[in-house]
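Write out this protein's structure.
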Amino acid sequence: MIPPRRRTPRAASLALCALLTGLLCALLGLGTPVHADDASSLFTSAQEAESRGDVEAAERAYRSLVAADPHARLSSRAERRLAWLDARDEWPEALAAYLVFVARVSPPPEELVAFEAVTAAMPEGLVRRESRLALAASWDRLSARSDSAEHAARAEEAYDSALAEPGLEGGDRAQLVSSYAAFLGRHGRTDEGLLLLDREGHAAGSVRRRLVLEGRDVVVRPLAWLLLTALGLATLAAQVAGRRRDLRLPPEPWGVPLLATSLATLGPYLLGRWYSLEAEHALGLLAPALALVLVLALGLGDGMRRIAAPGSWRAAAGVLAALAPLAVAYLTLFDAGEGPLAH
C-alpha cells in the first residue's frame, strides 16, 4: 500500500503563489478595457486625419473613441482635442491648412511662402493668429539652419506680421516678443531687441540678460582672443630668447607642474561629470583648453627665468598668465552654453 503523498511547506508556498498570481492576472484583466487596442487605433486615426487636414474625420474618430470607452485614458485626450478643434471652427478651410502646416517638422521655404498666402486670406481670428505665430517660428528656425540673409529678412517680416495681429495678447504675445528679441540678438541687433522688450513692456529677464551679454561679447571676445594670442607669442619669444642666451642653464623641472596642471584641469571635469551629465560637454572642452593655457604659462615663466627678465617684465608676464585662464574659460563656456548664457 502506497502511503498518501504528504504536502511539504514548499509545495504549499508554490501553490499559494500560483493562486495569488492568478488572482492578480484576473484583476488586471478586469481592469484593462476590452477596447484598448481599438481606442489606440482610433486615436492614431484621428491624429493622422489632423495631419492631413481632414477635420471632420478627426472629430468622428475622437467622438467614436469617447463613445466606445468614456473612462479610457485616451478618452480624456480625445475630449481635449475635440474642444481644441471646436474652438477653431470659424473657418474649416483655414483650420485644415493650419493643421497640415504644423504637422510638417521642417517645411522648405516654398511651403512657408505658400502658407503665408493662405494665412493672408484667412479671416481674423484664433486660427490666423496661431498661423502667424507658426510662420514666425518656422522662418526663425529656417534662418538659423541656413544662415541666409533672405530667410532672416522673411523671419523678421513674419514676426512683425504676428505682432500686428489683432487679439494677440497675454502669454502668446509675451512668448512672441521674447522669441523676436532673441532673434534680433542672434543677428547682432541687440539694441533693437532691448528696445522691443522695452516698447512692449515685457520683462523677459532671461532674454534681456542674454541680449546684454551678447552685446558685451562683441567687445570681450576679441579681447580674450588677443590675450591668448599674446600669451602664445610671449611664450614662444621667451623660450627662443632663453635658449639662445644661455644653453648651459638647466631647464625648469616641468614634471611636478605638469602633474599639478593635469589634476587642476581634469578635476573639475570629473566632478562635473559626476554631478551633472549636462555639464560634461562644456567641462570636457574646458579641461584640455585650460591645460594648454597653463602649459603656455609655465613655458612663459621658464623663458623669463632663462633670460633673467627684469621685474617689470616678470610682473607683466604674471598678469598675462593670470588672465589667460579666465579668457579661455569665458570663450569655452560661452560657446558651450554653460556660462553666463546658460538658461
